[in-house]
Write a structure and sequence with these properties.
With 330 residues, the chain is an alpha/beta fold. It folds into two domains: 238 residues, TIM Barrel, CATH 3.20.20; 68 residues, Four Helix Bundle (Hemerythrin (Met), subunit A) (Up-down Bundle). Helices cover 42% and strands 14% of the residues. The chain has an eight-stranded parallel beta barrel, surrounded by six helices. Helix 15 runs antiparallel to helix 16. The chain starts with 14 loop residues before the first strand and ends in an 8-residue tail after the last helix.
């Protein structure tokens, strides 16, 4: 089937960090931006109902330093998603992404997430409504299938429907999702990865920008995937070992590799500004704990920050004290 997608450049999606619930909040994204000037960052999933019916517009808060940054929405009502997309675009997001990949029971009960892979026509209607509402790219993040969708045909049909709806960028988590019987954590680990299915998708739909997600943990793996697809989206690896983003920035874009302590010190104005507006230090610190992952003193660094960030009056001096901890015996 020859369907023409919007002419999106693949470059903005070459490297990205996945939307992760309870992890990729605005503090995390600011920190990740210091490590990688080029990576495309994504919010945690925000439901269209929370924005449109709940008017929880605080969920759209982000800093200008985060760009390029995308808002990920969850929902299945076209008109509501269109309004949520308008709110996101008005707030300044560079992209609106629709979640068609989360397998949690709570998400399924709202009829969105991975269960929508069974309803490609509905997803197409949602995408069309969102594209009519905003001028920024509307993209979709999906799985290679759900439950008994064991062949390529289901993903192929879903992709054709997305192209017909005007999607130019598809981010594919290369695992099938089990909608019953597995927890969200198990759904990230137990279903086997099938990178070949995503590679085939790109070969058969060359007009589509395809980014791959799932199980990527090293610079070498990113390079290997980029031989077959347009982009790579990192998930937990970027969170637990955030310095991986700096290594990728150097490898993919030729940026000089920053010292970890320099990255931390560049965070100081943000930390002090957030403390001044009443943010507790612990909400920022939790995203920094993996910075010295694999390095001597990493354990001491984590312990000092974890224990100190909860104490009354904790502020920037705690991070200054934590820096020498990297030289301690792990």
């Amino acid at each position: 089937m020859n369907i023409t997608a919007p002419a999106e450049s693949a470059e903005p999606w070459r490297l990205s960090v996945a939307p992760m619930m309870d992890w990729t909040d605005r503090h995390c994204r600011y920190f990740h931006r210091l490590l990688s000037p080029h990576a495309r960052l994504y919010t945690e999933m925000v439901t269209s109902a929370a924005l449109v019916r709940g008017r929880q517009l605080r969920l759209l808060e982000h800093s200008q330093q985060e760009h390029p940054v995308a808002l990920q929405l969850g929902g299945s009502e076209p008109a509501e998603l269109a309004e949520a997309a308008r709110l996101g675009a008005r707030a300044g997001y560079d992209e609106i992404n629709l979640n068609v990949g989360c397998p949690s029971d709570r998400v399924q009960s709202g009829r969105f997430g991975a269960c929508l892979m069974r309803e490609p026509a509905l997803v197409g209607d949602c995408v069309k409504a969102m594209r009519d509402a905003v001028s920024v790219p509307v993209t979709v993040k999906c799985r290679i299938g759900v439950d008994d969708q064991d062949d390529y045909a289901g993903l192929q049909h879903f992709t054709e429907t997305m192209l017909e709806a005007g999607v130019g960028v598809l981010v594919v988590h290369a695992r099938k999702a089990w909608l019953k019987g597995l927890s969200p954590k198990e759904n990230r680990e137990i279903p086997p990865l099938d990178y070949g299915r995503v590679y085939r998708l790109k070969r058969e739909f060359p007009q589509l920008v395809v980014a791959i997600n799932g199980g990527v943990t090293t610079v070498e793996e990113v390079w290997a995937h980029l031989e077959h697809v347009d982009g790579v989206m990192l998930g937990r690896a970027a969170y637990h070992d955030p310095y991986l983003l700096a290594r990728l920035e150097s490898a993919l874009y030729g940026e000089p590799l920053p010292a970890r302590e320099d990255v931390l010190r560049r965070l100081r104005p943000y930390v002090e500004a957030e403390l001044a507006r009443g943010t507790a230090l612990k909400h920022i610190i939790r995203h920094l704990l993996g910075l010295y992952q694999g390095e001597p003193g990493a354990r001491g660094f984590r312990r000092l920050l974890s224990e100190g960030a909860h104490r009354p009056g904790a502020g920037w001096p705690l991070l200054e004290r934590a820096l020498p901890a990297r030289y301690a015996v792990a």
